[in-house]
Write a structure and sequence with these properties.
The chain has 13 helices and 14 strands. β9 and β10 form a beta hairpin. It is of the alpha+beta class. The structure holds zinc ion.
């Protein structure tokens, strides 16, 4: 896997699905060899691409590199002795890293150094590659190494599609499981969709669709507040308190599961339907610091923050973008959120007052009105499609240029 995502993933996986590996000394020797081979192959690819620039021919593609790997293995016994799975994956990861570099979503892949960022990845693993032996002990099957023990410190996610083995500078081994899905092929119609994260809705599409992630039902919400009241009354350390706590955890887990399901469904749907998916480039942290609507006008709506923050986090936006990047690698574009919520998508006029409320947009200049999130989603789409919102926003008096007919209004109802 390409390094930037790896580091993000590993970072995110800490405390989520990273487990301490406890290889025997003999196993550790093979693991170190795997790391060395992965690094060797990766650096070979970096070397081949070092002097290559976009638009210039000559850098070998993945197929060519695979052929070279076969040759190298024929030539070098030490490489041949290693796992082809590990070595080929390093090449695949590099190819993906280059695709992301060209897609302008990531930096150019760089050298891997011995003793730092050591690791390798195994993908397309079969079911049963991880198993639990006892309460705190499990094991994972690693090519050419066999079953390696791991500390079963938390539940292993279901549907593990790949795992990455890493060694930190202190010499500790970890395995991180990921249920990363295979990329979904682009439909190839050249269609771009803009997606705006909302609070009232979880996501608004430039097509006019409003998507809402499911949460708890009203009866469940009522049940939850009842439980929380009970919890407040229950004595610390009492068995009653433990029981109520468990019930609360069950409800929250149900909510999380529903949202995760929605994210999976929605990301698959978008990746299948559109070639390019444009989203706001906005860190979830920044988002939670300044409530929606204050991105363009910081300092406003401060009182609403608390409530909105909860809504934003609940909407699971970060997870949606992450899954989109897995399912549509290189097809997700992040655009600056600046002015997307205040610019009229019909005429390009920019005014903070045009966004009348969380959900309503009404252009002060042309009278165009509709859902504010859909309007923003269209600006996001148009930024990627080549109509720069920022440029239009820069000249608020600029008239309508090359605008499509107002079919948008019909769709929005
Ligand atoms: Zn307008």
């Amino acid at each position: 896997m390409f390094l930037p995502l790896v580091s993000v993933l590993i970072g995110r996986l800490i405390g989520v699905s990273r487990y301490r590996l406890e290889p025997t000394p003999a196993q550790e020797r093979v693991l170190l060899e795997h790391c060395g081979h992965a690094r060797f192959v990766w650096n070979l690819a970096v070397e081949q691409h070092a002097h290559w620039k976009p638009g210039r021919k000559g850098a070998p593609g993945f197929a060519e590199q695979c052929r070279q790997l076969t040759e190298a293995r024929a030539e070098f016994a030490w490489l041949r002795a290693g796992s082809i799975v590990v070595q080929q994956q390093a090449l695949k990861d590099f190819a993906q890293a280059m695709a992301n570099f060209f897609g302008k979503t990531h930096k150019r892949p760089t050298w891997r150094k011995r003793g730092r960022s050591e690791g390798f990845r195994i993908v397309a693993v079969k079911a049963g590659v991880v198993r639990r032996l006892s309460r705190n002990v499990g094991e994972v099957k690693i090519p050419k190494v066999g079953w390696v023990r791991l500390r079963w410190s938390r539940a292993v996610p279901e549907g593990v599609k790949s795992y990455r083995v890493t060694r930190d500078r202190a010499g500790r081994w970890h395995v991180a499981f990921a249920a990363i899905p295979e990329p979904i092929p682009a439909p190839g119609r050249g269609e771009v969709v803009g997606v705006d994260r909302g609070v009232a809705v979880s996501a608004a599409l430039s097509t006019g669709e409003l998507l809402k992630a499911p949460g708890l039902r009203d009866t469940e919400k009522a049940g939850l507040s009842r439980l929380l009241r009970r919890l407040a009354r229950a004595q610390r350390g009492s068995s009653r308190r433990a029981k109520v706590n468990a019930a609360v955890a069950r409800l929250k887990a149900r909510e999380t599961d529903r949202r995760k399901g929605w994210v999976e469904k929605t990301s698959t749907h978008l990746a299948r339907r559109f070639d390019v998916i444009a989203v706001e480039d906005l860190k979830i942290a920044g988002m939670t610091r300044s409530a929606r609507g204050t991105v363009d006008a910081p300092g406003r709506n401060v009182r609403q923050k608390a409530g909105l923050n909860r809504g934003v986090l609940a909407a699971g936006w970060g997870r949606l973008v992450e899954r989109l990047e897995h399912k549509a690698p290189g097809r997700v574009r992040k655009v600056s959120p600046r002015y997307t919520s205040q610019t009229c998508n019909a005429c390009g006029h920019r005014a903070a007052e045009s966004r009348q409320s969380q959900s309503r947009f009404r252009c002060l200049a042309c009278g165009h009105q509709g859902n504010a999130d859909v309007n923003a989603a269209r600006n996001i789409r148009d930024t990627v499609a080549g109509h720069a919102v920022a440029a239009r926003g820069g000249s608020p008096l600029g008239g309508p240029v090359n605008r499509e007919p107002q079919r948008d209004l019909l769709l929005m109802g």
